[in-house]
Structures are given as structure tokens and as C-alpha cells.
Amino acid sequence: MENNHNVTPLEETARKWLTDRGVTIDDMAELVYYLQSKYHDDLTLEDCKTNVDKVLTKREVQNAILTGIQLDKFAELNQLEEPLQSTISADEGLYGVDEIIALSIVNVYGSIGFTNYGYIDKQKPGILKKLNDKSLGECHTFLDDIVGAIAAAASSRLAHSAAGEDEDE
Ligand code: MG
After folding, report:
1. Which of 26, 56, 66, 158 is such that its CA lies 20 to 30 A from the CA of 17?
2. How would you class 146 by CB atoms within 10 Å of its CB: exposed for 0-12, middle for 13-18, buried for 19 or more?
3. How many Å lie between the centroid of ligand 1 and the Cα of residue 75?
4. Alpha-carbon distance 90 to 112, whole Å?
5. pTM of the model as a whole
6. Span from the CA of 8 to the centroid of ligand 1 (angstroms)
7. Residue 88, class by beta-carbon neighbours within 10 Å (0-12 exposed, 13-18 middle, 19+ buried)?
């Protein structure tokens, strides 16, 4: 983590839970690269990592991560009540609350995040494909949308800073 800001317990937990659920900063940086390399010559994976790191410092992002992962974990352990247990463990298409939570992340760097989020959610490259693999017995109904949203937000931030804008404060 390259940030020199004070890492709060909330941020520390959000980062740890992502890792525990099999998602690394590198995985998310690769999604950003997938989305942005065609628009920026000389884009490096390191640039992508820096932007992912910045997104993870946002409180609304940390809260979305914890809320989504908590529900995924309960669903995996069969500890939700019906009908929610079946809905979330089956990742039912009409449920939609997973996408709504993800949108709170997509929003943090403005509306161009929406386009990126929609695109990556359809393509499901890299870690997103793995998270959507239902054969592993894991539940990532919320996490796949959250990870896609973090990549989309990091892409927006990258685009804004390439345009010479400082998007943080
Ligand atoms: Mg989902």
C-alpha cells in the first residue's frame, strides 16, 4: 500500500476481507488495465494499482466491501433466513441489490464509472470470471459486483487525473 494516509481500522478490515476472499490489489489493477490500456499510452500496472489503492481509502467503498462480503459469507454458511438465503446463494438475476451496493462505489469518481462498470460486468475478465465460477461452492454474489465497481471507479480516477484534475479533495 503506497498511501501515506492514516489507515483506519475500517480500511484495514475492508482490505483484509478482500484478500481473505481471494481478491488482491493486483487482480483489481489488472481489471483497470483491461479497461484503460487502450486509452492511455504507456499505462503501467503500477499506475492501475495506485488508483485502486486510492479508491480503497474511501469510506463508502469500505462500507460497501464489508456489507457485501458479510452477506456472501453468511450465504455460504447457510446462515441467512429464507427467502434471502436461496436468492443470494443462487445469485438470482432479478435480485439486484448486489448491483445497487456496487453503484455506491461506481459513483465516487463521477459518472464515467457507470460505462466502465456496465462493460466489465458483461465481459467478466480475470478475477471476475473466477468469482463467477459457481462450481467452487463459494458465494460471491455481492463481491463480483463490488470488485467490478472498484475497477470502474479506479478507471474513472485514472481518466480524470490523466486529464490533469486532482480527484481527491
Ligand atoms: Mg452479483
Report:
1. 158
2. buried
3. 13
4. 30
5. 0.94
6. 27
7. buried
Q: How far apart are CA 121 and CA 132, in angstroms?
A: 11
Indicate the CATH number for domain 9-162: 1.10.3760.10
DSSP 8-state assignment for residue 40: S
63 pLDDT higher than 80: yes
Is residue 35 within 8 A of residue 51, CB to CB? The reply is: no
Residue 53 CA to ligand 1 center (angstroms) comes to 22
Note the pLDDT tens digit of each residue in 6-41. 899 999 999 999 999 999 999 999 999 999 999 999
pLDDT value at residue 169: 47
Structural domain spans, the chain: 9-162
pLDDT digits (tens, 9 = 90+) for 112-126: 888 899 999 999 999
